[in-house]
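In this section we walk through a basic example: taking a raw amino acid sequence and producing a predicted 3D structure, encoded as discrete structure tokens. The instruction is simple. Fold the sequence below.
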Amino acid sequence: MIDPSAWYKLFFRWYDIACLMLRDPVNNITIQTFSQPTPVNLEYVQQAQSETGKDFPLSWSGFAVTVGQVMHRQCAVNPSDWHYYFSGISRKETLLMAAKQLAYMYKQRLPSHH
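The resulting token sequence is shown next.
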């Protein structure tokens, strides 16, 4: 039988994912896309959670400290480079790809394109 804490670590994963949204009210266009998910080790999420007070006003959406801040302290990783540390792909690259996708979808929806 597998230990419940081991099962939790094996099957419960955390990911960082960005949502990019474009709203063009003139052309009545609203579109969104997401970046490539970056896996985050559970230990870093748990550390960020433990550093977040129970009265943190944005607890519904995240923690008081970022994964980048936790990794900076524990792994000497630049707080803005942690995506590369986990996946080999920088946050800039994942956002650029999502932005290209968003621009393409927007171009397809513009009235002049049809």
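Looking at the output, two observations stand out. The helical segments are 4-11, 42-50, 67-75, 82-87, 91-109. DSSP finds five helices and four strands in the chain. In the next section we compare this with other chains.
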